[in-house]
């Protein structure tokens, strides 16, 4: 058997052994571990410390040496006979003949032993006591320094000397645990009010390790002496034996301030943990005073004086929701941001820098800088040109230089979201109270401290009263002796010994033994009249002190007043301003959308499902009849399908040919250059095999009066309320029910007051009101939109806003058949690159399921590609102020002004919009409401319409 498997703790600790896990615990039991007699008697009186177990009837157990004696042969035989998984205990009180065997179930014994170990960890190592806010190791370090006389006014002493004192007398563990605890109590970035003053290298906020204990020195802080050790020698707390019963140590320190809330605490035990934030000393005393004056004070009243934690590293606390929850229930999450400033580096180039002056509590500064640099290198964090740490003794300063044109607020929000510059502190306020762990809120913690402090003050008062009464009793005897000085001298002269002199004085002057001894011990020089007057004055002072102490002990109100007075004294002596400031915000959580600017953007989608996002100035304005500029590289046999303008925050609804709708924010499509091929939509959307996106609709707001108008390839049309689509699951939802062989082709936004213009590939047009189309649910088919002639198919659909066809007061669409040169117009675009504008008044209103009117007279080889309602935005001269973007099948893009397109009749062929010698046919077209330059200057939101070829 490997002796290293037998792990013993000291018997006086009353702990069986330390098990790392339940599995190791069972393994220890298999190795027949001995236990301390004192602990065994606690579990089962009468049983000795000798125990072992057998596993099966076919396997015997080898005798194992116990701590006190060897296992005897009869005991081993008994174990072999009882090989049923039981623990066999032999009582050694009666030898071999008088032994008593106690069978015990293994799982029961293991459970009890592990629970004992768990409680040992909870009480003796990991969790702080609610009353003085200290763990045992911290308490022992402070007490050892107090015993060594390391006050704030004395010289420093080597930390190795302090650690040796602690290990030798109070804490039977390794020196690393003790030194690490000592170092933490001296770090001003770990504790809000450090308890130890260190001299030397005690680590840094960059997680640099402290110097070895032989190179560092320490002494107590003045606050520690005033707050924790002031009344230690006045019987204020109980003293218990140390680990070897050679000395006494305090079970608690007589704290005057709730140290658990002042400096907080963190620790992980067995099945339980604690994480308590630090607070400001002055605010803590104020909240304690409120509770003293009003025990029924509400949490809101306490928060008026102590609004939240105060971390030693400062920072900004975002919102109060987490604080309220933590103070109310004991659990909550506090979001903390670093404190930053924006500095202008160069006024000419307008380059700026973000300066980080404070970071969240328990954040490693060096790791933060390294993480930022890593994100910049991986291009996950854009807009940063350089980062450097300029921190020194004067304070923290991390400089993050930004690139020219970068928005500091956007970069800062990205830093909050991607790095520890914003982090959460999860409060779990668990502490030991009356020997048990408790989860408590703010008021419960303050009340528990007040109850403890009342007991401390009461014990101190009783101790002082006892001393005052004893001294007063002696002074009374001395005064009696001085008043009868001749008689006292005569009695002493006649006495044969000290004992007989004491007995004679007691009998002659009716004195007690202490009084008689005090008279015998008095010096002759104190027999003068002046000395007698001093004794009389001391007696009077003692009587006043006794009266005050008795009055204090007779009233809890007076005790509470004294507690408040002493706490305020500590507050006034050690004032400290708040470091962490509270931001009045609902939540410190940042969503991804919060760090994305809502800028105008271009979305290009190909027929095979490749999408890319580009800046709006990618395509410059060109003239009618030019070749255009390529939209970028396309895959083999791929063509452009949609080209639209939207904003980064818009919800983009993707409608597939199978009638399914998907949703994603516009910024989800990666931004790339014009020449890039784009990102497959299957990486953004959960498309099924063979499913294609046929229509894309950007939606900035889901209004109640807005509808989606859907048109299929076979001419079915329906209107669905936009309210059906604000929450779309990742796998999509049904938008329209399709008949076999049909496909969803076009989807447009509309309202009931708008007009809908539908056109076929042969140029037939139906103009109708949207309100005559009945609103249906998602899982419906709709009605016939247009009666198509043989060989004809639906080409496109567009919505004419109500404000557009009501531009002229009193005019009605379709009242006149003559040509009107004023807007609004219908803009026709053919697949061959021809186009024209036709006045809207040239078309009369028509119900659905009709053949329609001729809108374009095509040649035999040409067909209609798109139709738009234009004239929504007009220039000063009354002409259209819009632009149209044409995209060919090869990906060539041409952007032209609508005003350059001629106004012609319904039967005209039109003019050349784009030359298509080597670029195929027109694949898609999009309408932009204003020129690029004006949109940038006015920061206007453009109205967008788009159409695509079948």
Structure explained in plain terms:
The structure is a single chain. The protein has 950 residues and is α+β, with helices and mostly antiparallel strands. Mean pLDDT is 82; it is low at 1-87, 808-820 and 931-950. Helices cover 28% and strands 24% of the residues. The strands form 13 sheets. It has a 5-stranded antiparallel sheet, with no helix packed on it. 40% of the residues are buried. It starts with 21 loop residues before the first helix and ends with a strand. It contains 22 helices and 46 strands. Strand 21 and strand 22 (610-614) form a beta hairpin. It is elongated.
Task: Summarize this structure briefly.
The chain is an alpha+beta fold and 950 residues long.
Radius of gyration, Cα only, in angstroms? Answer: 44 Å
Q: Please, how many helices?
A: 22
Give the biggest beta sheet.
Answer: 5 strands, antiparallel
Helix content: 25-40%
Low-confidence stretches: 1-87, 808-820, 931-950
Structure class = alpha+beta
Residue-averaged pLDDT? 82
Approximate strand percentage: 15-25%
- Principal-axis shape equals elongated
Strand order of the largest sheet: 23-43-42-45-46
Note the gap between the termini.
83 Å
Number of strands: 46
């Amino acid at each position: 058997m490997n002796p290293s498997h037998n792990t013993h703790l000291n018997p006086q600790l009353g702990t069986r052994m330390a098990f790392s896990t339940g599995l190791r615990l069972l393994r220890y039991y298999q190795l027949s571990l001995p236990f301390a007699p004192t602990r065994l008697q606690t579990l089962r009186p009468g049983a000795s410390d000798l125990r072992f177990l057998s596993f099966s009837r076919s396997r015997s157990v080898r005798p194992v040496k116990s701590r006190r004696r060897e296992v005897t042969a009869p005991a081993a035989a008994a174990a072999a006979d009882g090989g049923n998984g039981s623990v066999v205990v032999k009582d050694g009180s009666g030898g071999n003949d008088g032994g008593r065997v106690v069978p015990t179930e293994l799982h029961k014994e293991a459970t009890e032993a592990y629970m004992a170990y768990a409680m040992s960890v909870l009480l003796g190592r990991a969790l702080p006591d609610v009353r003085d806010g200290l763990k045992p190791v911290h308490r022992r370090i402070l007490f050892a320094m107090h015993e060594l006389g390391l006050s704030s006014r004395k010289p420093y002493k080597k930390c190795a000397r302090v650690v040796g004192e602690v290990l030798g007398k109070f804490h039977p563990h390794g020196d690393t645990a003790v030194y690490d605890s000592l170092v933490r109590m001296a770090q001003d970035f770990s504790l809000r009010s450090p308890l130890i003053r260190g001299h030397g290298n005690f680590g840094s906020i960059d997680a640099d390790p402290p110097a070895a204990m032989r190179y560092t020195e320490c002494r107590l802080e003045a606050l520690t002496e005033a707050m924790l050790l002031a009344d230690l020698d006045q019987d204020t707390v109980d003293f218990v034996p140390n680990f070897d019963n050679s000395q006494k140590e305090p079970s608690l320190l007589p704290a005057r301030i709730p140290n658990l809330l002042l400096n907080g605490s963190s620790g992980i035990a067995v099945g339980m943990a604690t994480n308590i934030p630090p607070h400001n000393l002055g605010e803590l005393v104020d909240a304690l005073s409120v509770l003293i004056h009003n025990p029924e004070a509400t949490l809101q009243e306490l928060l008026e004086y102590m609004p939240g934690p105060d971390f030693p590293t400062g920072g900004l606390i975002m919102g109060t929701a987490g604080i309220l929850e933590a103070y109310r229930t004991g659990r909550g999450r506090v979001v903390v941001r670093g404190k930053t400033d924006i500095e202008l580096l160069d006024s000419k180039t307008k380059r700026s820098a973000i300066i980080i002056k404070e970071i969240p509590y328990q954040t490693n500064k060096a790791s933060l800088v390294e993480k930022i640099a890593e994100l910049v290198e991986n291009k996950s964090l854009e807009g940063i040109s350089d980062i450097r740490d300029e921190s020194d003794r004067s304070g923290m300063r991390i400089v993050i230089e930004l690139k020219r044109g970068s928005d500091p607020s956007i970069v800062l929000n990205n830093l909050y979201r991607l790095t520890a510059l914003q982090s959460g502190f999860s409060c779990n306020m668990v502490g030991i109270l009356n020997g048990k762990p408790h989860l408590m809120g703010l008021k419960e913690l303050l009340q528990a401290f007040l109850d403890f402090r009342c007991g401390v003050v009461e014990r101190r008062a009783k101790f002082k009263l006892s001393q005052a009464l004893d001294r007063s009793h002696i002074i009374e005897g001395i005064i009696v002796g001085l008043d009868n000085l001749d008689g006292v001298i005569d009695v002493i002269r006649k006495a044969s010994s000290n004992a007989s002199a004491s007995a004679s004085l007691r009998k002659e002057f009716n004195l007690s033994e202490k009084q008689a001894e005090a008279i015998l011990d008095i010096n002759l020089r104190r027999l003068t009249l002046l000395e007698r007057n001093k004794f009389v004055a001391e007696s009077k002072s003692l009587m006043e002190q006794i009266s005050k102490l008795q009055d204090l002990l007779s009233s809890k109100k007076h005790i509470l007043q004294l507690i408040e007075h002493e706490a305020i004294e500590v507050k006034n002596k050690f004032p400290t301003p708040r470091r962490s400031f509270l931001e009045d915000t609902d939540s410190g959580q940042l969503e991804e959308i919060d760090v994305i600017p809502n800028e105008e953007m271009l979305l290009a989608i190909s027929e095979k499902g490749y999408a890319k996002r580009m800046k709006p100035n990618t395509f410059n304005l060109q003239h009618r009849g030019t070749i255009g500029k390529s939209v970028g590289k396309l895959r083999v046999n791929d063509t452009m399908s949609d080209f639209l303008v939207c904003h980064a925050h818009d919800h983009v609804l993707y409608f597939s040919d199978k009638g399914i709708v998907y949703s994603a924010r516009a910024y989800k499509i990666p931004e790339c250059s014009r020449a890039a091929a784009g990102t497959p939509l299957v990486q953004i959307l959960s498309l099924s095999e063979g499913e294609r996106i046929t229509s894309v609709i950007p939606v900035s707001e889901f209004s109640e009066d807005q509808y989606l108008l859907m048109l299929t390839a076979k001419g079915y049309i329906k209107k669905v309320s936009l309210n059906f689509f604000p929450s779309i699951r990742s796998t999509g939802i049904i938008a329209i029910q399709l008949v076999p062989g049909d496909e969803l082709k076009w989807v447009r936004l509309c309202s009931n007051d708008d007009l809908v213009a539908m056109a076929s590939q042969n140029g037939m047009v139906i103009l109708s009101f949207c309100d005559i189309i009945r609103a249906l649910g998602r899982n419906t088919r709709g009605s016939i939109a247009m009666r198509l002639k043989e060989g004809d198919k639906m080409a496109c659909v567009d919505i004419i806003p109500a404000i557009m066809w009501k531009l002229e007061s009193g005019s009605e669409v379709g009242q006149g058949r003559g040509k009107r040169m004023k807007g609004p117009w219908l803009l026709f675009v053919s697949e061959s690159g021809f186009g024209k504008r036709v006045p809207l008044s040239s078309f009369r209103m028509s119900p659905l399921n009709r053949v329609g009117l001729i809108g374009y007279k095509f040649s035999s080889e040409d067909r209609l590609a798109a139709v738009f309602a234009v004239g929504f935005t007009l220039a000063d001269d009354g002409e259209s102020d819009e632009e149209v973007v044409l995209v060919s099948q090869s990906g060539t893009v041409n952007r032209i002004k609508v005003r350059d397109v001629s106004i012609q009749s319904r039967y005209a062929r039109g003019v050349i919009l784009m030359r298509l010698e080597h670029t195929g046919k027109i694949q898609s077209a999009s309408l932009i409401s204003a020129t690029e330059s004006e949109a940038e200057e006015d920061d206007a939101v453009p109205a967008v319409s788009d159409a695509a070829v079948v």
